[in-house]
Sequence to fold (718 residues):
Amino acid sequence: MTVHADYRLSQLDELEAESLHIFREVAAEFEKPVLMFSGGKDSIVMMRLAEKAFFPAKIPFPVLQVDTGFDFPEVLECRDSWVSRLGVRLIVASVEEAMASGVVVDDGKTSRNRLQTGTLLHAIEQEGFTAAFGGGRRDEEKARAKERVYSHRDEFGQWDPKNQRPELWSLYNGRIHAGEHMRIFPLSNWTELDIWDYIGQENILIPNIYFSHRRRVFARDGMLLTESEFNPLRPGEVAEERTVRFRTVGDLTLTGCVESSAATIPEIIDEISVAVLTERGATRGDDRFSEAAMEDRKREGYF
Amino acid sequence: MVMDLLRFATAGSVDDGKSTLIGRLLLDSKSIFADQLAAVQATSNARGYDYTDLALLTDGLRSEREQGITIDVAYRYFATPNRKFIIADTPGHVQYTRNMVTGASTADLGLVLVDARQGLTEQSRRHAVILSLLRVPHLVLCVNKMDLVEFSQERFNEIHQEFTSFATKLSIPDLTVVPISALQGDNVVNRSDHMPWYEGPSLLHHLENVHVASDRDLVDTRFPVQYVVRPKSDDYHDYRGYAGRVAGGILKPGDEVLVLPSGMTSTIAGIDLFNGELDEAFPPMSVTVRLEDDVDVSRGDMICRPQNAPVPSQDIDAMVCWMSTTPLRPRQKLSIKHTTRTARTLIKDVLYRLDVNSLHRDLETKELTLNEIGRVQLRTTVPLLCDPYEKNRTTGSFILIDEATGVTLGAGMIN
Fold:
């Protein structure tokens, strides 16, 4: 904590204070919260904030991961390390199991990312969660720019962007009916740069694929994708080893990496400070389908 | 030098050049990425516009893009080396007053735009009234489109004076007036060569330097208890901490404190943050406070000082902004959330409806409809531990919730 002589907080400390307040409000007012934990950098920052909000007590709710079956092993490893250090209960909702039991239908055209939505909603309903923390940030995408910190979901898990509750001061309204739930976004006011600054400041563990490494990759749709058994090469595609890192981590069949030599957090911060593409625009195939791709997925109940 | 945070609210319609101004601040501070700009250029081309419409950057939802208007509060982020900015970008029309109120509720600074050709309009007056009602401590009036009035000092002075005389009816502790051209960039980031007669700072320079830390109350200690931390572990067997966000004053270990509503007194044993104990805590820090004595404290209680405490009251007099299509009327029963305390409330009376354009008080109408603001008297089931909103924006504010639907119906500022 950096405190100025004239009682000013650094912007990072102020963001942290706001997020801790949100975590405590939810823990106090909701019967069954859960934290959606992907093992990506944003959800790791959420874990850190939850750890701080309830210290020295343990985090008073479980964490939920939606396993696409196409997750990076390095990310799952990092997830497990966080879960065991904090002693929280991990619930894994598997897209493959959801497909096998008919909860979601794989028509061969829908990406695993999209199938996550049905799997997630099913898990929330099964466990009876009333609030689900997500790592979404308003700077990520323009539909998110208008989303509330407390974002209401109806009994179908849907978001109604035109009918959002007004959200004033730091007075959050957590009223829901049976079968409904609230998505909670404690990182709403954080930017990508803030996330990295905070990871640097807190010196916390993140998956090593965020740092520069050698990897066999191939080009598809203007992105560099990782070579993998889940992602067979199409005719004309050639895999070769390059020095890369990932700016976001998701379904590995859709998440591209960027050529980068940034091997430390300060180097990543330098790289982002001069980046010309948003992290989603650069490396997420799932956001590219239309101008309103994120808004449409969010309406259906995506993260 | 540590980077701090400024939250500011803008209001206005596309015609005022608000979106152009925000677009320029984002563009010039390199906060717009190439893919965002490319998407906006593609849409502008597809619609046959002659120029890239920067307003498309800020209009996020599909329905808004289709209608070409901003209907909700959108939050934007940019940073310069010493400060991060959060913009609450709100629509300007009267039918979106509630969105403006929402955006202003968290703002340190409000930005009002006027078109130099038109001067003050009903809309710009209304924006200033709302910022003043929400006690936004700093106001910047941007006289835009100076290029279209030949950068005339005389025109600028006219508008400046007209606004200053109007502002005497409002509560605006700090007013700055800047002549700009958002389209051409005059006085937005850099001082303009076109207006050598203007001796003040550029808009961005002002935003970067306006002092906001002193707006917080560092005298009157207010700590609404959010959550009781009880680890029940071997290492922290008897630990009992009260977590919350400091709403006012400076808390220090050793301070004698009063807990409301019980009226018990104790002493602060320690203030915990994850990384260790603190010597002091002040707004807006989130901390955990431990007390020397085993007093009964729970969520909804307030820790303050024995000689400086809010008076618990069940009768509340407040300015309310109504946000629902179903009107507010006397005898209605609602839920009220104030700090960390939730209660039921009865609307006793609507004293008057305030015309936010003229400041006229309409004493005849005994109801508030969507987007209207008025003075309301309420009775609550339990005492609220509140201060006047003008003294403390946290302990002086509340929201009203529909008991059946759970929807937020209104927002109140206590008199």
In short: Strands of chain A lie at 33-36, 63-67, 90-94, 131-133, 150-153, 181-184, 213-220, 223-226, 240-246, 257-259. Chain A touches chain B through 65 residues (CB under 8 Å). The radius of gyration of chain A is 19 Å. Chain A has two domains: 11-194+292-300, 205-287.
